[in-house]
Design a protein that fits this description.
417 residues, alpha+beta
Length: 417
């Protein structure tokens, strides 16, 4: 299984097709959009290939993955059918493609190594083109129209995410749309077992209030790429289930975050939990029978002898939810161990919430990555591509962000997962 955050398209050719691109209308377009989504089931091998793929059920809300962003837009591409009916809901038209986008201010670098530089960036996600209308320029037209809106909103950069092995998507964006390969984070996924995971007695975990979490995050992530300026809106969102701080057992904690920042312990870690389960559900389709049987056997054994704590694979072949772990960070030699404790705590939250997996996305060189428990076969290696939209540079000290070397960490916004 692969948890994908990628646009799934095929390489476009310049063949002309009469396509109208317009803003999504929830009253008339939902049926057509859902049909295109079904045709473009998300997975590393793509949909309709007879191989495993990941289907995303948006629970009737095509805007769910961008709705919580400061500014967002969804576009659809439609063609005339000449039949008087169509999946797009309008007479004589049919929706053959769609794309979503949002705009926000994020950290792009720092001045003197500490003062954050905020830049307005745009994010493209959920690009879909019906298989019957690929290689006709539909995807490129959707991207170009979305970029027009990005510029109107003052975005200086546009970026997108896909899996590294999605060659068609990479060719479209880097070959035809002017994007450059930028960052290569990893999606790490852990199944949620029937049994709770024990927590280390050497670690104490405290839950932070959103305001305290904001202070801690603005201090720790001041120079981390893609850290959002509106982190307060993220932390106070109903889908954010809390921020948790891990410190060595016995560490005095009186709830004073400012005192913690002034004198932190030798090792500590922090993360937040986002409830994707209430936004969308996932389902693995096309799995071989032997894989289904093997996964079922692990659950059977776990039910029969739960006291053994045998890891079992949840039934990901039916719709399941996930919790996304964001804002992973920390310091000190024991930080990975602290993160491991936090991830186990999040796992137990997801178990109580009825989720199938917990997932996170981290930079290739993330210092606390070693502490994130995950199953390698369930994850994915992502590729983020970026394009400069503006002519000048708002921050001369930064220059062209697309050419900046990667840092050790990256902040992945849960609103866009």
């Amino acid at each position: 299984m692969v948890v994908a955050v990628a646009a799934v398209v095929e390489e476009e050719e310049a063949a002309a097709v009469e396509v109208r691109v317009r803003e999504y209308d929830g009253g008339r377009d939902r049926g057509g959009v859902e049909e295109v989504e079904r045709e473009c089931e998300v997975g590393s091998s793509g949909g309709g290939s007879g191989k495993m793929c990941l289907f995303t059920d948006l629970l009737g809300d095509p805007l769910c993955r961008i709705r919580n962003s400061p500014a967002y837009l969804m576009l659809v591409a439609e063609i005339a059918t000449g039949t008087g009916t169509g999946s797009g809901g309008g007479g004589g038209t049919r929706i053959v493609g769609l794309v979503r986008g949002c705009v926000k201010s994020v950290v792009s670098g720092s001045s003197h190594g500490k003062d954050p530089i905020y830049t307005k960036v745009a994010y493209i996600l959920g690009l879909r083109v019906s298989p019957t209308h690929r290689r006709k320029g539909v995807g490129k037209k959707l991207v170009e129209r979305m970029e027009e809106w990005f510029r109107q909103k003052g975005a200086e950069y546009s970026y997108m995410a896909t899996e590294q092995d999605n060659e068609a998507s990479v060719r479209l964006f880097t070959g035809r749309c002017g994007y450059a390969k930028f960052r290569t984070p990893s999606v790490l996924v852990q199944p949620v077992f029937r049994h709770s995971l024990g927590l280390s007695r050497r670690v104490s975990i405290v839950k932070l209030e959103p305001r305290d979490a904001e202070r801690l995050y603005r201090w720790h992530f001041a120079a981390v790429e893609f850290f959002p300026d509106d982190i307060d809106a993220v932390l106070s969102n109903a889908l954010s289930l809390g921020t948790f701080l891990a410190v060595p057992a016995g560490t005095r904690w009186d709830g004073d975050v400012e005192a913690f920042i002034a004198s932190p312990p030798a090792s500590w870690a922090v993360l937040s939990v986002w409830n994707c389960m209430d936004a969308f559900r996932l389902e693995v389709r096309g799995a071989p029978r032997v894989m289904r049987a093997a996964a079922g056997a692990t659950r059977m054994v776990d039910r029969a002898v739960p006291w053994l704590g045998i890891p079992s694979i949840p039934n990901v072949f039916r719709p399941f939810g996930l919790y996304f772990l964001y804002g992973l960070g920390g310091a000190g030699p024991g930080a990975p161990r602290m993160v491991r404790a936090l991830c186990r705590h999040a796992h137990n939250m997801a178990r109580r919430g009825g989720c199938g997996v917990v997932a996170t996305e981290v930079a290739a060189c993330e210092p606390v990555r070693a502490g994130v428990p995950h199953w390698a076969r369930l994850g994915a290696e992502d590729l983020w591509c970026m394009k400069r939209l503006a002519d000048g540079y708002t921050h001369d000290t930064l220059g062209d962000w697309t050419k900046a070397p990667p840092g050790h960490s990256i902040f992945v916004d849960p609103r866009e997962f």
